[in-house]
Amino acid sequence: MTVKRLNSYLHSTPRTLLFYFAVLILLIASGISGVGFALNSPIFLLAGFGIWIIWFVIIFACVLPQTDITLCNRTKLLKRGALIIFVTVFLCGLVESVGTVIFVPRLIKDQNISADFRQVMTEWKDGFQYTDATALSQQAVENMLNGRNPYAHANVVQALLGYNGTYDRVTPLRVGVLSNVFPYPDNSQLEQIWDKAIQTPLQVPIELESRVCYPAASFLLPAPFIFLGITDIRIVYAIFFLAGLAYAVWIIPKKKRLLFIGVVLISLELWNSIGGGGEIGALGFPFLIVAWLTLDRNLWLSSICMGLAVATKQTFWFFLPFYLILCLRTHGMKNMLAVLSVIAGMFFITNLPFLIAGPKLWISSITSPMTDPMFPMGTGLITLVTSGIWHIRSAMPFTVLEAVALIVAVLWYFRYCGRYPQTGIVLAAIPLLFAWRSQFGYFFYVDIISLAYIMVHDRSAQEAITPNSNLSDNRPVNLMPVSK
Fold it and tell me: 3-class SS at 172?
């Protein structure tokens, strides 16, 4: 297929084409930040943080209708750039797949290359192994199927040993021998703790997080698949993720599907995360994207899916206030309250048995990401701490900033939802930039869901910004999708 012919398939607007550039920026930011973490390099960490900020700016521009008018004379240039990015990144993805299987293991063993490069390659290879969260989730499924309370029988040492995880895939805590370590323990310290732990796997060191840290849907949803014989929970995550993408592709108008599929295919950081099993969010992704895309099509399906999303992982809770505001503006107060009741019902139906079995255990488990003394980590503002610029050892200032950012974002959206309904998805992720732990996986889905939402609920950019528009900030939003 020639470039000219492929161009004809890209029925697009400037801001939808801009998503290709956002994906490229995301890959660069993740790569540089990853190198910074592997080498403990302040320069790479700060550079990665700066590029992440650029990514957020681009994504926010993508969801603003004005961007189409601003870049209306650059459509052909953007289309060429999008094609170049797609071909380049897609080929890089193929090279990465082959290299990870064949060449990376050899490079790790090659003593003629620098130790820093071998360390980066080792971190890369380990990224495709079970994380502690993934291992604990699969252990939770198996415990439940065997009639045991998953929250009461979590053991990260046994879980990682059972699924071939390694010491550098644990989540260390700032207690015990690590109480005075900052900003993060090095590999030798983690290895010492791990070597001691595997001698007595039933006794988990206090320095290792060993809770099932997620709401119950995180192990209830995969349970039928594990029961039917799937032995790797990462396959289950992939099934759920692909189901969400399939629904989005089906509901997006035919003439726009190719552009959406192209963005998905080159989102290598997302595929890498799912391949490594490190992103439980893949399990809630289909429910989140269906919830947003069906809000104006099937209110009850939308509310049920949103309930399952928030019952899967805590980061999806940040989307809830924006979803409810959009529901309020679209369907009115009465329906919004009904939707909120359904969401709360779905959350408590999935979690109630475990809440009754051990209230204190359940509460301490699902709040542990916020309350346990974890080390700072991520690509957001916390980079200033992990790089050594800020000497702050308390998570409280970041928690306050995160709360303030959420409040400001919610108030802004409540005021301008009528004019910019599609910004809610991006605004939901902004507070996580200020978190004590703002890891890569918290942001991977924002661009995919935003693009799908824009393509389904496409309005003319001119209508959105013209003063005579029949849309006002204080009137209900018309979100009827374009026809297929």
Answer: strand
Which pLDDT tens digit goes with each residue over 216-251?
999 999 999 999 999 899 899 999 999 999 999 999
Distance CA(429)–CA(452), nearest Å, equals: 17
Question: Would you say residue 170 lies in a domain?
Answer: no
Alpha-carbon distance of 189 to 177, in angstroms, equals 9
**Matching residue, tokens 């919610």:** 410
Tokens of 307: 């309930």
Name residue, tokens 């301008």. Answer: 416
| pLDDT tens digit sequence for 111-148 | 556 555 555 555 545 555 788 899 999 999 999 999 99
Q: What is the dihedral of CA 386, 389, 390, 394, to 10 degrees?
A: 20
Report the number of distinct structural domains present in the chain: 1
Q: Is residue 191 situated within a structural domain?
A: no
Is residue 224 domain-resident?
A: yes
Per the domain annotation, does 186 fall within a domain?
Answer: no
Residue 470 above 60 pLDDT? no
pLDDT at 107 over 70: no
Domain that residue 278 falls in: 3-127+215-465
Q: Is 382 helix (H, G, I), strand (E, B) or coil?
A: coil
Beta bridge partners, 377, equal: 437
For the ranges 71-75, 175-179, 187-191, the one whose mean pLDDT is highest: 175-179
Contacts of residue 298, defined as CB under 8 A and 6 or more positions apart, other chains included, come to none
